[in-house]
Write a structure and sequence with these properties.
Length: 659
């Protein structure tokens, strides 16, 4: 070996570290010519060649070194590194396994094997191998970080969070660990803590765009959409070339109801990011909400052209298929999306709702739990133990969620809890409390947690819409209507306002949210065939949005209006009483349908061809409410033809004197 071999190697290494590979590589080669058995020179030359984008040359050097140093575990490591560069993952794994076999205590070999197993999606094996690294080196930050990622991908988020917590303790000033912790907390639905973890990262690195993005997601989970938008805007400002940040900003504008702004931003963004599937997907969603189905379909096809395996874009397309009354094609696409991303909330929700529509109750209710993963979610978890349906609570708080119709549909299940002897309170918004308090005297309705010791070990909570899964999956076993009563004094008070003749209460508009309302509401004008019926008197039960249509309706003189103070002291209190005096209700898919059903009052529900899951795929009746008659479009989108048939049914009922 030349006398200056060590000096030459040191000089080459210094050039290598400075990034001057074009000068380091010839020096390494010269050393190997003079000292062909120098493993260190071969190792460094292999790495330099890989960094220079010369994998074939690197392969030749690494193979020669491996063959010349058969018992050296590091020779297997550099061979594995070459295989990685060549994307020959199985061969890379074999090399790292051989290295670990030669030296079982070499943590680097186990670590690289674990990374390769994760790359091959053999996640359980990867976690086991990271465990081995940590047995050898208990403070291996890289192993902890990568194990937390693998655990998250396996759905073992609590274990992943433990690794994140340990990383923060080991290196509290590294913002990356706080970021990882924020992301894992988001997976667990712990949105406030996620936002706080992102803030901890921002204290260390205020210009960290990823931290602003994760903070925005945490705030969105807390339903603070204004705060979320500000965080997403900051992320997009700091990293304007990241399409994901732009997409989040567009999505939040859409959720805030700023659809014109969202549309303009999306159209501008797709011009800038023509191959960004997330942007095209958001453009599809905002066009969908603006009732532009053709434009939405065009945008989602552009998203899929850019990324054919984009699970979220496949799910958006599935939603559009549902809007167009194609449930089976929609499910197939949602299942394809789940094969790519098993945790995607909306895809899981579409499959769950399809299961429920088809009467596959157990699978449907299990899948329906995914609603808690939406941003913003339909409810905010209470800060104490959630009931699993098995424990015997000393007190169970049932948390109301979603719309009025959902409250009316599911609240009957508190009776089953009372039948079991479980002390229960139903926690709802103040406006709903008077109505729902009439479901069961054994279950007090509350509007806050004042006076309840939520720290007591026997106190649990559960979301209202989770009760079917926990208590009674099959609606055939639910309490039968009437399970909701009206106040007797109101029933007496409103007897005189009902006109003579066959009196029909009508409603045409439900929740105006475009993500909820697609295909469910109709313009008041389609009720014209009912207004033309002799001997039929119409009473408007429409409240809030949609009521303004009465001012321009050509047959407004045929419709009795109930005045601005109607139901003023509580949701549906007056309406519930008035139903006692009506011969019939005709409504679209609104909460009024649920009210009539719960009161066991006769109603016709006018539905789109393929309505929301709760009305099933076919038939004129529903196990949810025996008093309801379901009428569906013969042709998708044709409410005019449907209401002609509804009017004929109303006339038939009038002639027959049916309820």
């Amino acid at each position: 070996m030349p006398k200056d071999f060590r000096a030459d190697l040191a000089r080459a290494g210094a050039l290598h570290r400075e990034g001057r590979l074009d000068q380091a590589i010839p020096l390494y080669r010269a050393i190997l010519r003079d000292a062909p058995s120098s493993f260190e020179a071969a190792r460094l030359l292999t790495l330099a060649l890989l960094q220079s984008g010369r994998p074939k040359e690197a392969h030749a050097v690494a193979r020669k070194a491996r063959d010349s140093h058969k018992t050296n575990p590091h020779a297997q490591l550099i061979m594995g590194a070459v295989y990685q560069a060549e994307e020959k993952w199985d061969r890379a794994l074999g090399a790292f396994e051989k290295s670990a076999e030669l030296d079982p205590g070499l943590s680097e070999a186990h670590y690289l094997a674990a990374n390769t197993l994760a790359r091959l999606n053999r996640l359980e094996e990867a976690v086991a191998r990271y465990d081995r690294v940590l047995e050898i080196d208990g403070v291996s930050v890289h192993a902890l970080a990568n194990r937390s990622v693998a655990l998250s991908r396996l759905g073992r988020s609590h274990e992943a969070l433990a690794d994140c917590d340990r990383l923060v303790k080991l290196e509290p000033r590294d913002p990356r660990h706080h970021l990882s912790r924020a992301g894992t907390l988001l997976e667990l639905g712990r949105f406030t803590e996620a936002a706080e973890a992102a803030d901890a990262a921002l204290l260390l690195s205020p210009k960290l765009a990823d931290a602003h993005f994760l903070k925005g997601q945490g705030l969105a989970g807390r339903a603070d959409l204004t705060g979320a938008r500000a965080a997403f805007a900051e992320a997009a400002s700091l990293a304007p070339d990241v399409a994901q940040f732009q997409a989040a900003l567009i999505r939040t504008d859409r959720q805030l109801g700023n659809r014109s702004a969202a549309l303009a931003a999306a159209e501008k963004a797709v011009a800038r990011f023509p191959d960004a599937a997330p942007i095209w997907r958001e453009l599809a969603e905002v066009r969908r909400e603006l009732k532009d189905p053709w434009g939405a379909r065009e945008a989602v096809e552009r998203a899929l052209a850019a990324a054919p395996e984009d699970a979220a874009a496949l799910t958006t397309k599935a939603s559009l298929l549902l809007d167009g009354d194609h449930p089976y094609e929609a499910r197939a696409l949602a299942e394809k999306a789940l094969s790519i991303d098993p945790a995607l909330p909306m895809a899981r929700y579409i499959v769950a709702c399809d299961d429920l529509a088809e009467g596959r109750w157990a699978a449907g209710w299990d899948g329906y739990e995914v609603r808690s993963s939406f941003l913003p979610p339909p409810y905010r978890p209470l800060p104490f133990a959630r009931w699993d349906g098995k424990a015997a609570p000393d007190l169970l708080i049932v948390l109301g969620e979603q719309g009025i119709g959902d409250h009316i549909q599911y609240a009957r299940l508190v009776r089953l809890l009372a039948d079991r002897g479980i002390p229960t309170r139903l926690l709802v918004k103040p406006r709903l409390a008077p109505l729902l308090s009439r479901i069961d005297v054994r279950v007090p309705v509350i509007t806050d947690l004042a006076g309840i010791d939520t720290g007591a070990p026997g106190v649990y909570w559960a979301p209202l819409s989770s009760l079917p899964r926990l208590v009674a999956p099959d609606p055939a076993s639910w309490p039968r209507p009437p399970y909701l009563t009206a106040q007797p004094e109101r029933i007496a008070r409103w007897r005189e306002i009902v006109p003579d003749g066959f009196t029909v209460g009508i409603a045409w508009q439900g929740d105006p949210s475009p993500t909820v309302d697609i295909g469910r509401s109709v313009p008041l004008n389609v009720f014209a065939p009912l207004a033309a019926l002799d001997g039929v008197e119409l009473v408007s039960l429409q409240q809030g949005f949609g009521e303004e249509q009465l001012d321009a309706c050509p047959f407004a003189g045929r419709i009795q209006r109930l005045g601005p103070d109607w139901d003023g002291d509580g949701a549906y209190l007056d309406t519930s009483a008035l139903l006692q005096h009506l011969d019939l209700v005709v409504t679209t898919d609104t909460s009024l349908a649920h009210l009539a059903g719960a009161r066991d009052r006769p109603a016709i529900v006018a539905l789109k061809a393929v309505p929301e899951w709760r009305w099933g795929r076919s038939g004129q009746t529903t196990p949810l409410y025996p008093s309801l008659s379901l009428m569906r479009q013969d042709t998708s989108g044709d409410f005019t033809g449907l209401f002609a048939r509804v009017a004929a049914r109303v006339a038939e009922r009038r002639r027959g004197g049916k309820r």
